[in-house]
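Reopening this one. Same input as before:
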Amino acid sequence: ANLRPRANDVDLGNTYGLQFAPAAGGEVLEVPVWLETGSATLNVFDIVLGFSPEHLTATACSVGSEWAAYGFTCTLNDPPDEVLLTGVEISTDVQGLVQLATVSFTVQGGFATTPITATVQGLQTSSSQIDEEYAAVAGQGEVALSSRRRRLAEWGQPGTPVEAELMTTDAEASARSALVARRRGGEAQRRSLQEGSGEVLGDLNADGVFNTFDTQDLKKWATGYPGYTMNEIGGLSDFQRRQLDPTLDFLSAPDSTSNCPTGWTAGTPCPSPLDAQYLQYVYANFLRFVKLETQADVSAMVTEPESAEGTLAVTVAVYDKLGVPVSSNTTRVRYELGTALNQGMQVTLGDDTTLTQDGVLVTAAGPDSATGAFTMS
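Same output, byte for byte:
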C-alpha cells in the first residue's frame, strides 16, 4: 500500500498502488515528487532527494505543471548521490497535493532494493515557514528489481512528521539509514561551514546561512514588496547591500541606476530580477559567487604588461554557495577582453579563444585548488 502525505510532507513516486514501479538494470525509472500544503499556498521549497549512485543515476528532471510558471531549479548529481529541487516565489495560488517535478533515474542494477529518500531543507507556505531540515515520511521507499509493496504506516498527530513503518529486510533498512545519515551529515557540515565564517556570501537576511529564503528576499527587494523598498534600505549593512547585486553591476557602472527598480533613487548596489535569478542559480550550483567589493578589487584582478610585447594577466577567485573557493574543474570562467587592436593576441594560459563584436573571449585556466582562482594570460 502507499502512504498519503500530510501537510508539509513530501511524497515520491505513484500516489496509489506501488510507490515505485519495479525496474531492471538499464531501464528508466520516473519518480514524481509531490508536496502536500493542505489549505495553505506554496511559496518556497528546498528539497533534496538522496539515492545510491551505485544503483541509480539521475538523468533528467522536469517541473510539474502547477509550478511551471514560477521560479524553479533542479540540480542533478552534484553531488552524485543527490537531486536538489528548489522553488522560490513571493506568493502563489498553488496549494493542496502539488506535483513539483518528475525526476528520471537510470537503473544500474545491484541490490534487490535500493532506497530513495527526500529531505526538506526549507519550506514556506502562506501559513508557516520551516527553516530546519526534516526527513519526509510518505516519501520513504525502495526501488525494487522485483515487485514489493509498502505496508501502510500508522500516522501520528495531524501535521506531525512520524517514522513510517516500512516492510524491509535488515539490509535494506541499514542501507536507507546510512543514506539518510550521510545526507544529514553533509547538510550539518555545510551549515557549520557557513555559520562559522562570519559574513556569508548571499546571506541577505543576515541569519548566518545562505539559502532559498535569501533568494526570496532578493525577489522582494527587486519588486518593491512592502517592507523591501528604498524606505527600508538604510536598515541593511554594507555587506547586505552588496548581496542585493550578485551580478556586480555596481562595480561596472557605480553611478548608473538603469538596472535598479523603476523610480529607485537610493543609488547602488541595487537589486534587479536578474540578480534574484542569479542568486537562485548559485544556490542550485549552476553559477558561482565572485567576491569583488570595490573598484580596487577589480583593478587588482589585472596585471598589466610591462611593455608593448609584455604579458597581460587577469585573475579572479570564485566561490561556491558556501563561500568556499571552488576546486572542481566543472566550473568554468570566461573573460571578454574589449579590444579592437589586439584580437590576434597569443593566449599562453587559457584556451577556447573566440572573437566577439567587442574583443576576445577567453576561457581561463583553473581553478587553483587552494584559492579558487582562474587565470588567463
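So the earlier flakiness isn't reproducible anymore. For the record, The chain has a mean pLDDT of 84.
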